[in-house]
């Protein structure tokens, strides 16, 4: 067992965990960051990997490379079987235990299949680099199979940002496969949601924009219809109908990582840990929860901040600040979120964003610029060369899609220029 004297255990090396560890390391506080992967994964670009527009290695950065300049951070690549908040400890799957002066749960989320029969077995979630790579390989496999009618048809479940962005990217991919003569008939993309609008969190203008852009890209949008079951070759709908498809992408909702559920306190909504305004877990001194693993009070009417990259990054950093205050014997401060707005990129030349205090709606290049600014900031915690990302992103947004989407296995890369030794170990097991 490692010592506890002023060592912070951070469970999870996503946006929240990395921001927390980095801030603590800047003040030379010893940190042990534990993640089951040896790399950080940038979720907002997973659909680009799934649709063959970016290689998986471009959205995964090894934790050791991120913390190369920070000797105070020890990275442990291991599955955490249990978090024991009362003891500020972590039990690893190999039986090792770690304990610290503080523990920060930044374990993120996993898909919520809502108990729908066959969904966990047959649908493709999009939460990790491995998920995205599995979906890409599955589609490439279908592309190689003989031209059976409908073999490439895809159903995307969920009309939130993940479902909309994925449906847009896949519709674009099918268009390119069609234009370049790789398929006799491109797959049909159908997005299904039981609600009555796409991008439910956005304004009605954005709902219409998303539906129009998806339809223009060749996708079909079916609202007011829920999924009753997922079979290997079809989706059954709750109105008694069905859609034949060998590929079902799950963008239907999320639950906190299972480790959050057994950490000690009764889990709150979405299986997440309820935290106080200062991000501490009530009744568990020295324990914090941040990012997608936490219900973080927004201060208005009992609401909580949404599961967004900027909330994760800011809450991770804020928890670090409160730990630093604690180490100096100062009182913790309530989390103050700087709202960066909400946005979705629906494909080349199509983006929608709601920004500013009143969530003013913008579309097209202006929305894309807002998307780029926020994503650059998110990436800056993990990469020093964010200019490479900006170049890639403008190129993606602007250029003729056939020129940049590779139907083969060599999509255009972000010029990270990383050392070969920094390559993540992406396993699909
Ligand atoms: C497809 C998709 C697209 C998105 N697009 C956007 C977007 O455009 N803009 C935006 O702001 N937000 C977006 N989000 C949301 C955003 O990515 C998340 O809110 C954010 O990444 C959460 O960060 P986190 O650090 O809390 O969790 P994560 O980034 O999920 O990190 C959690 C880490 O914990 C590790 N972990 C979990 N359990 C264990 C365990 N038991 N043992 C060891 N390690 C463990 C995981 O491996 C992971 O590295 C998107 C999310 C998804 C899924």
From TrEMBL:
Residues 7-316 form the FAD/NAD(P)-binding domain. GO terms for molecular function: NAD(P)H dehydrogenase (quinone) activity. Its EC number is 1.6.99.3. InterPro entries: FAD/NAD-bd_sf, FAD/NAD-binding_dom, NADH-Q_oxidoreductase. Its cofactor is FAD. Keywords: FAD, Flavoprotein, Oxidoreductase. One of its GO terms (biological process) is aerobic electron transport chain. Residues 409-429 are annotated as: Disordered. It is an enzyme of class 1 (oxidoreductase). Pfam families: Pyr_redox_2. It comes from the Bacteria. Belongs to the NADH dehydrogenase family. This is NADH dehydrogenase. It comes from Jiangella mangrovi.
